[in-house]
Amino acid sequence: MFFETTIQIRVEDFKKGQQWYETLFEREPDFIAHEGFIEWEIISGCWLQVAEGTPAIGSGPIRFGVIDIEETRNRLLKDLKIDPFEVHTRDGVPVKWGTFQDPWGNLVGVYEYLDKDAESERLKTILRNE
What we know:
Layout: E1 5-11, H1 14-25, E2 31-34, E3 37-43, E4 46-52, E5 62-65, H2 69-80, E6 95-101, E7 107-113, H3 116-128
Parallel strand pairs: 1-4, 5-7
Antiparallel strand pairs: 2-3, 3-4, 6-7
């Protein structure tokens, strides 16, 4: 039985990496295991680990659900000084999404449900389990 998940990305400059991801998530890590390794519990049972090391270029992206992709994109452009990224849609895909890179080349992104009723139901399910 699987009951949790962790996803790990690596950054070459750990101190800068911690600051960058703290800005992305707007909070400090939930767990600091040891020097060069931190984790955030994004939603109950889903952890993002940031570890010091050589990034796995070409892997990912890891995308995070948001309520308002335009508002989030504007905050990220301002706070993280990332390159502008496009928001995409495609027929048959229930979300719009955008992808950008962290300073180490890891692909990161955000997505927003197009159907706000479906989004609301998904949030109820997630929050009920927390």
